[in-house]
Amino acid sequence: MKDYELFSRETKAFIYGSQTAAVQRMLDFDYMCRKDSPSVVAMITPERSGFEKFFWGTKEIRIPRLTSIAQASEQFPNADVMVNFASQRSAYEVTVEALNTETIRTIAVIAEGIPERLERKLGALGKKLGKWIIGPATVGGVKAGAFKIGNAAGTMENIRMAKLYRPGSVGFVSVSGGLSNEAYNIIARNTDGLNEGIAIGGDAFPGSSLLDHLLRYEANPDIKLLVCLGELGGTAEYEIADAVKDGRIKKPLVMWVTGTCAKVLPGQVQFGHAGAKADSDAETADAKNRALREAGVIVPNSFDDYHLRIKETYEKLVADGVITPAEDFDPPSIPIDYKQAVAEGLVRKPTNFISTICDESGEVHNYCGVPIDEVIEKKYGIGGVIGLLWFKKDIPVYAREFMEIVLQIIADHGPAVSGAHNTIVAARAGKDLISSLVSGLLTIGPRFGGAVNGAAEHFLYGLRNNLDPREFVATMKGKNVRVQGIGHKLH
Questions:
Q1: Residue 488 is among the residues annotated as catalytic for this protein
Q2: The dihedral of CA 258, 263, 266, 268: what is its sign?
Q3: pTM
């Protein structure tokens, strides 16, 4: 690829973190773009290895789960993009490792809340190594017809409506991920569509700037029209004005800086993004829009006129012969998932089980013929309910009290139900009561009901080494050891 390109139809990527939904959306985008193979080659999940199933159209495929960036880069040296879904607690360390991996050139950092000092270090390291960072605090971006970062561009319906399945002539960059999604729609309605769009992220110190991407678009001969959305706070937009003045940006640029409403609000207002706060007059949206207009940028009077300026500029480029409108085609349909179809009432499925102990068909549910309100009024209690559900009868008071005493004494300290499930399966298979009970007891172990000893050892280790909770979790994660007892109410 050229220096000005970050993605192409041949781009292969790693997904750091167990973000299966994001992976499926990327594969659906690839399929809609008529690509020959998926863009995601592996998921990097330090906690476990193996394979994960995904759909490629209607066909199921497997994508490997690998436990480290080093292992992934060794197995897939052609993958030069990593989408980092690590939490804000570990995103910095993961990004540094990716930057220092020779085969990885572009990293999208999704997490927000990374300390600003660390964000500045990431930006400096990326520039030193000649790597690209998109984010932090970003939804990512999209190369139309070629590659999509994670959840960027929204649903497949939105991608189809915005014509992102094939490239157009417009290069777009914004701070906000949400507004980038809106802008893709605006661009599709008023031009031949997007070529590439990036949301640099809403934090004060993104790894790449608005100008960095506009200069890439300036160098890209396939991009004829530049479109940008800035926001109040910071001075990045003045860098763009200077670039237009000194000739580094020659292509038509339509740009608007959001946040002009701040002037009618009392005092300094912090908007949604960490960087969206004007600490001086120069950082206000009005001042930056004025500077851009004076530099020769096409600036609308308000966001309401944004689409009109884009349309006018595009139509002029077409009339001048600069743009030959991209040809459209009908992209492949993405099959709807069964779970979504059920939720939308598009399919129906017969029941697998018939209950003889409870009835939820009427306005008042009942247990074995006894309405729930009667169960409450007559104070059946837990023992009485067990009698109705298990034994299908109204058991005497002494039996109810006995069951409640048993429950209080032997109540499990964890939420797992694998033991109960095994007991149920064995009983349904016709096994006797003792055999069924034992089948459940045999599943007790470190990950179900038997984590007490392991949890005690883990927490004692943290105590003896004077580790605070964050350090303790980080240490166990570094050892790739599951922390036993987490989630159990007793702990």
A1: no
A2: positive
A3: 0.78
Query: Where do runs of H (alpha helix) occur along 304-371?
Result: 306-319, 338-343
Q: Looking at 273, 421, 458, 488, which residue is catalytic? A: 273
In the chain, the amino acid numbered 47 is E
How many helices (H) and strands (E) the chain has is answered by 18, 16
Q: Supply angle C-alpha 143, 144, 146, rounded to 5.
A: 70
Cis peptide preceding 331, ω within 30 of 0: no
* In the chain, domain spans: 13-319, 350-410
What is the DSSP secondary structure assignment for residue 448, as one 8-state letter?
B
State the fold for domain 13-319. Rossmann fold (3.40.50)
**Residue 43: strand, helix, or coil:** strand
Q: Mean pLDDT in each 10-residue stretch from start to end of the chain (491 residues)?
A: 96 98 98 98 96 97 98 98 97 98 98 96 98 98 99 96 98 96 98 98 95 99 98 94 98 96 64 59 93 98 97 98 96 91 88 80 87 93 93 93 86 61 89 92 76 85 93 87 65 35
**C-alpha distances in angstroms, 247 versus 212, 250, 254, 323?**
15, 6, 16, 21
